[in-house]
Amino acid sequence: MVKSLDPDIQLLAALADPTRMEILRELAGAPEVCACDFTSCCTVSQPTISHHLKVLRDAGAVTSERRGNWVFYSIAPNLMDRVGAIAQGLAPGNGLIQVSALRSRASQPRRSDDAASAPSVSA
C-alpha cells in the first residue's frame, strides 16, 4: 500500500486505529504523558506503543519533548482545528460536487463542440 502525501489523509489514517485512539484519550486527560506510561492504558507492548506514537507524531496529531531518558507526549495544539477543518470541508456546500449533480451531468446530452473533440469510434 502506498502512503499518501496528503496531510489530511495521513491524519485521518493515524486516528483510525483503536490503539492510537486510546493513546489520544489518555493524552486528553493530562497535559502530557511519558511514553513509558502508555502501557497501562493500552493492551500492547512498549515497542508497539512507540510505533503508534511515531505514527501520531508523523501525522501531526501529537508533539513530543525529550527530557533526559524520557519522552513526554501531548496532543498537538492545532489537532482540533485540523480535524474540524477536515469535517467542515466535507459539509454540503463547501466546494465539493454532490453525487446527484454528477449524475445529472452524466445524463445530459453532450454539447456539439464536446462531441467534435471526442475521439471517434469506428466499428
Average pLDDT score = 82
The main β sheet shows up as:
3 strands, antiparallel
One letter per element, helices H and strands E, the order comes to: HHEHEEHHH
CATH topology: Arc Repressor Mutant, subunit A
Intertermini distance: 40 Å
* Beta content: 5-15%
Helix-strand makeup class: mainly alpha
Low-confidence segments, given as residue ranges, are none
CATH superfamily: Winged helix-like DNA-binding domain superfamily/Winged helix DNA-binding domain
Q: Estimate percent helicity.
A: 40-55%
Describe the strand arrangement of the main beta sheet, using strand numbers: 1-3-2
Strand runs, count = 3
Any guess at the CATH architecture? Orthogonal Bundle
> Number of helical segments?
6
Number of structurally distinct domains: 1
Q: Quaternary arrangement of the chains shown?
A: single chain
Task: Describe, in short, the structure shown.
The protein is mostly helical and 123 residues long. Helices cover 49% and strands 11% of the residues.
How would you describe the overall organization of this protein?
- By secondary structure, the chain is mostly helical.
- The protein has a single domain (1-108), classed as Orthogonal Bundle (Arc Repressor Mutant, subunit A), CATH 1.10.10.
- The chain is built from 6 helices and 3 strands.
- A 3-stranded antiparallel sheet has the order 1-3-2.
- Helix 1 packs antiparallel against helix 3.
